[in-house]
Amino acid sequence: MNGSGGHSTAPEQARLDVAEVSRRFGGNLALDRVSLTLAAGEILAVLGDSGCGKSTLLRLIAGLDTPDGGTIRIDGRVVAGRGAFVPPEARGIGLMFQDYALFPHLTVLANVRFGLNRLPNAEAESVAMERLREVGLADRTASYPADLSGGEAQRVALARALAPRPRVLLLDEPFSNLDSGTRERVRADTLAVLRQTGMSAILVTHDAAEAVEIADRIALMRAGRLVQSGTAEALYRAPASPFAARALGDIIEIPGQAVGGRIETPLGPLAAPPSLAAGAVRVCLRPEAIRLLPEGEGVPGRVLRRAFAGSLARLDLAVAGLDAPLRLTVPQAHDTTERVGLAVASELAHVFAGTDDGH
Ligand SMILES: Nc1ncnc2c1ncn2[C@@H]1O[C@H](COP(=O)(O)OP(=O)(O)OP(=O)(O)O)[C@@H](O)[C@H]1O
Question: With contact defined as beta carbons under 8 Å apart, do 341 and 297 qualify?
């Protein structure tokens, strides 16, 4: 029941290859042998809670910091590690942070031109115009940042980061300063621009829904380590740990006991994976793994509460052997009696040995 590994592309073919990279701050191991790859044109989301090392990883890739171990390659060339260090401006990396960092005293056009100072004036101007067209802001060239909405400012920052056509674009929580209505639209616009320009990008976020929506693959981090990487679907369907299961969607966790090829749980027996040793296990279930049956069938449950949730209804069920009520969502039209039966689809259960979280 293990998930996929860290590499999806051979390191020598990858646009970006991060191999066994570590970074220590005093006694704090902020990154612990993190490996990941990014293919050309791919969008990877680095997903994790505050303090898990996401920004540290981006800073190392950008060349704003130096790793204590491991190597970073861009298009096969070592840019950090093995005694090499290529400075940020020579890495072909574009950066976009959540505060956009637009220059307030420069027009929109001048902001986008800023990163193009190696080009002759006329060319820099025409490239900047082209990038502003790409993000749909060709008519705002003479405006100043103070006159822009949050969404527009974000698009100018995107145009500026894309202006020199970087090999890799790094986006650090780029939508977190936008209100929720604007965020979805700007996110969709940003994704469209990244796809249109074939950009290879890493997006750092603590928002699983955002990672799922925008990325081809997700690298899930926890406490300085890469927990699992793969497509959103792979992480959803085959989480490597209870933590990974929780990170990518609703999960119902129940205790279990593996004995002789089966797992005894309060929701009935489940088939045990062949490699599982006897002993205590944790069973993680997606809500769709649990079926409601008429009273008298399956494992008995008692409805404690039924709450209205639009087209759905939320049920809290008491089940013998479970400490907390089991929360299920059913179609509003589903009429429930006070007593019901429950069944679990074994093939949708994720079973983990032991009782701790694992990585
Ligand atoms: N320059 C630094 N000096 C000392 N400790 C640091 C430094 N930069 C980061 N850290 C520590 O490294 C760990 C990882 O921090 P990092 O900022 O990379 O996490 P993050 O996942 O980006 O969090 P957030 O989402 O809050 O920005 C934290 O424990 C942080 O305190």
Answer: yes
- Average pLDDT of every residue of the chain: 90
The residue whose CA is least distant from atom 12 of ligand 1 is 30
What residues contact 237, with CB distance under 8 A and at least 6 apart?
none
CATH architecture of the domain 250-353 equals Beta Barrel (2.40)
Ligand 1 mean position to 55 CA, how many Å? 7
Does ipTM surpass 0.85 in this model? yes
Give the residue extent of every domain in the chain.
11-92+166-246, 250-353
Record: fold of 11-92+166-246: Rossmann fold (3.40.50)
pLDDT value, residue 4: 41
- Measured from CB, residues less than 6 Å from any atom of ligand 1 are 25, 28, 30, 48, 50-56, 206
Count CB neighbours of 207 within 10 A: 16
Q: Would you say residue 133 has pLDDT above 80?
A: yes
Nearest atom in ligand 1 to 57's CA: 18
CA nearest ligand 1 atom 4, residue: 25
User: pLDDT at position 249, please?
Assistant: 85
Q: What is the pTM of this model?
A: 0.88
DSSP 356: S
